[in-house]
Amino acid sequence: MKAIKFLLAAVLAMVLSTPLSAQEANYQEMIKPIDKALKTNNADQLKALVKDYNKIFKKNPKALVALGNTYLLNKHFDEAKLVAEQVVAKNKTYGDAYCLLGDIEAMKDEGGNAAMWYRQAMTMDPKNPQGYMSLANVYRKRDPEEAAKAYEMLKQVRPDYPIEAEAAHTFYQGGQYKRAYDAFAKTDKAQLEDWRLAEFAVSAYMDSKKEEALELATFGAAKFPTNVTFRRIGLWAAADTEKYPEALMNAEAVMADTCKKSARDYIYYGQALKGNKQFEKAIEQFQTAFAMNDKDFKPYQYISDTYAAAGDEDKALEWSEKYMNSASTTTPSDYAKLAGIYLQKAGKGENVQANYDKAFSIYESMGKKFPSISYYANLQAANAAFQAELDDQAMIYYGRVIKELEAKQCDESELGALKAAYKNYGYIIWNTKKDLNGAYPYFEKLLKLDPQNALAKQAVEAKHELDSMPAEEEVPAE
Questions:
Q1: What is the distance between the alpha carbons of residues 132 and 134, in angstroms, rounded to a whole number?
Q2: pLDDT at 50 exceeding the cut of 80
Q3: From CA 337, how far away is CA 301, in angstroms rounded?
Q4: Which helix (H) or strand (E) holds 196?
Q5: Whole-prediction pTM
Q6: Which of 230, 229, 241, 305 is closest to 267 using CA atoms?
Q7: SS (HEC) of 110-153
């Protein structure tokens, strides 16, 4: 029920922030100081404000329910209930008052009582969608079939009501982005208001549908050009999908807008510039982001990435090490990036073995710091050595991967690592060491995991052919 309480609170907060008519804006403006008095526990001021409010809006049930919602959001349950009961006494068919009574029960974790009041709203005010939507919220997790029935009943009495969009908004407010996306996907995006369309785009982005998020953001920016939110979403999605010209176009639109800029805006602006090879400008944006929040050292890492992209490995190392020494927490990705700089230096022929050794030591440190993915750290070291034709070094690390993963029940990612280790370990033994017999067990294991692997098939066939022939020189891998 706590999730229901959170969702209902979010819905009520939305009601207080939805675009309003002039009359509604009048009572909403008068509610603001009441809300503040409730939050500061200023009883005398609250009494005077509520008295004035009731004098003006005593015949306006919508305004009175809004007052009740304000009490509710501040957990003044008795006062909220009194307001709702007063509205019901004078307006027996006003569904929002029954919904307020249901919301009070829901906020108190009384789901059964809440459902009773929502059903009463549906009975007394059948064309008001709020009762149906609130009832569906109560049952969404406990009894999805009942939630579906509530939606179906609403469709029957209000076929014009955007049920999917409302459900999506509720999920969005609760941070359930996948469910929000699924609901939004059933709507016609061309019919959505700008704020709903923005929620759709964010939901797609948060559900890792970044290509679609970019499409939605582009559509929204064209339809609602004054809403900078679409430019922001477009910037995130384009940068993350490496569509850097689009990212830069959106970034420049955000920067040109009068909206308040955040450190995230400057970070993504920097990413867009880096992707377009405007390295000096990118570094300036990352430095601006750090200046706005000098407790977050992630911009140091972005500066390092930019120097690495520009081919200045020494500066990249300087900033990467500053980041690793300053950040309170580091990730496997941070270690991998640091190792990657040394590999990049080695690839240029600069102190080759020393730089490879440094990279390998960083991967080993990664494995020790994050033991649950030590196989991954060893695999990265093995692959780097394999690509550099440091076969003996590669065999050491591939051997560690095999030993660790053969000793456990592997998930899909781990199986992928084990298959790669079998393949490359076997290849080195067969091709470099000219020992098909020694390589055969690894290819045999690989074939069990990946029956279609071409190299494994070739090795097994060569072994069978070798076994059927008189002793002679083994055939190397092609």
A1: 6
A2: yes
A3: 9
A4: helix 194-206
A5: 0.70
A6: 305
A7: CHHHHHHHHHHHHHHCCCCHHHHHHHHHHHHHHCHHHHHHHHHH
